[in-house]
Structures are given as C-alpha cells and as structure tokens.
Amino acid sequence: MENKHIYILSTGEIREKYLQEAQQKDFFIDIDPFISVNLCNQQSIRDRIHKLSRENITAIFTSQYAVRSVIKMSDHVPAWKIYCLEGATQKEISSFWGTENIIATAGNGKELATRILSAANKERYIFFCGNRRMDTIPSSLLAYDLFLEELVVYDTILLPHTINRTYDAIFFFSPSAVESFFSVNYAEPTLFFSIGATTTSALMKYVKEEHIRTAIRPDKREMIEMAISYFDQHIYGDNFKK
Q1: What is the pLDDT of residues 76-104, one digit of tens each?
Q2: CA 5 to CA 168: how far, in whole Å?
Q3: Residues in Cβ contact with 51 at an 8 Å cutoff, skipping those fewer than 6 apart
Q4: What per-residue string of b and e applies to 61-87 under the rule 16 or more CB within 10 Å gives b?
Q5: Residue 98: left if φ>0, alpha if ψ -120 to 50, beta else—which one?
Q6: pTM of the full predicted structure?
Q7: Cα(147)–Cα(175) distance, rounded to whole angstroms?
Q8: Residue 106: CB partners within 8 Å, gap ≥ 6?
Q9: Type and span of the H or E element at 46
Q10: Using N-to-C axis directions, what is the helix angle for 220-234 and 16-23, rounded to 10°?
Q11: pLDDT tens, 149-190?
Q12: Residue 241 burial class via C-beta count within 10 angstroms: exposed 0-12, middle 13-18, buried 19 and up
C-alpha cells in the first residue's frame, strides 16, 4: 500500500493502544459511540446477585458489560459454572473467575445456545443480560423447558446522530449500535466491519452482504487487524474494491 491513509469510523470504544498501532500503519480511527451503557445499581438486583452467589447455578454471559456489572455487585467470587461468548466477554470472566469455571464458549449466541443444549440437564440457568438483549438464548432454552431466569444487569441507551464525513470503513460492535447508526444515517458505498454474526445479521437489514466483513473471533484488536489486512490486499491507487 503506497502512502494511502485509510479513515475508519468506530461506533464503539477502542483502546488507545490499538488506535496508535493502527495509526502507525496509516489507519486513522475516529471514535464516535452510538450507544452508551449504564451498569445496574439497583438494590434489588444487588440483593439477588448476592443470593445467587451462594447458590449452585449455571450462569450465561453474552456481554462484557453484564460480567462487569455482576462483578461490581459481588462481594466474593461465586462458584458458578459459566457459559459465555468468546472475546471480550470471556476475557472479563477469566480475569475474575479464572478459566476453570468456564464450561463452554462460542462465537455467537446461536452457537452458545447449541452448546448449552448439548449438555443440558436439570440445572438452573441464569442469563445475566442487558435491557436490549437478543432473544436467541432465551427462546432456545425455553423451547426445551429448561429453567431460565433472566436478570437485567445493565442498560444500553441508543445515541443516534448524523455523521458529516465519508469514511473508508465503519466498525460495529453490537446490533444496538447498528440500529442507532442507521436510524439517522443511510448506507453510503462504504465497507462495514462487524464484530460477530449477530451484529452482521443486524447490518444486513441495511446494507448488502458483500459490503460486510465479519471478524472470525469477537475481538476488537483482531477486527482492526482484519481491516488492515483487507485494505493492504485491496488498495489500488486511490480506489479499493468492495
């Protein structure tokens, strides 16, 4: 690639270290969040988590924010069995629980539900989730008459606003950010990078599948590297292939 600056919009937060690494390769990423997340602080939820922390349950996490919220409201490390998504969610869990409590992981909610069902018995499943959670896991487990309690431990708030410039690519890390973005913006001839299959499904409501690149693993650093690799291979002069 010959001195071609690539400008990317990220609709969610990215660590400064990753931004600097990308900039060294002439990739400039603007951070412009389209959602905000509020961790729960309700006493009733805190009391429920304290009670559950002393019981034998199987916990399900599909968001790093759910993990952070539960950790914030825990007074010790619960001896739970855990199913979770890979990437940031798994990293948050491992930093608090270690890896021995994790029963299985998956790249998206559908795969995680399949792994839960393949080993399902009379366990009590607690799904720690947000107010805008997808229905994939609850509908899958309830269809098999499994005991499932949902506990909303964080709120996702949409922050829609228009963007005033054209980017070579746009990063999305959640279906909520996709919904927020396209509620006031339209799909320009831009390349879209998605953190995972669920976010890709949300994007396909607004853009053609051939304009979407999905990360193999739900990891922001790997998604940046995927974008850099893509443009390194497809850049020609001042144009790139979509």
Answers
A1: 999 999 999 998 899 999 999 999 999 99
A2: 10
A3: none
A4: bbbbbbbbbbbebeeeebebbbbbbbb
A5: left
A6: 0.88
A7: 27
A8: 85, 86, 112, 114, 115
A9: helix 43-52
A10: 10
A11: 999 999 999 999 999 999 999 999 999 999 999 999 987 778
A12: exposed
Structure tokens at 37: 């997340």
CB 53 within 8 A of CB 73: no
For the record, the structure tokens of 163 come out as: 């963007």
Q: Which of 98, 134, 136, 99 is nearest to 117 (CA)?
A: 136
CB proximity list for 57: less than 8 A, separation 6 or greater: 80, 81, 123, 124, 125, 126
Take residue 196 and report the two structure tokens written for it: 């995972």
Which residue type does 28 have?
F
DSSP string, 22-37: HHTTTEEEEE--SEEE
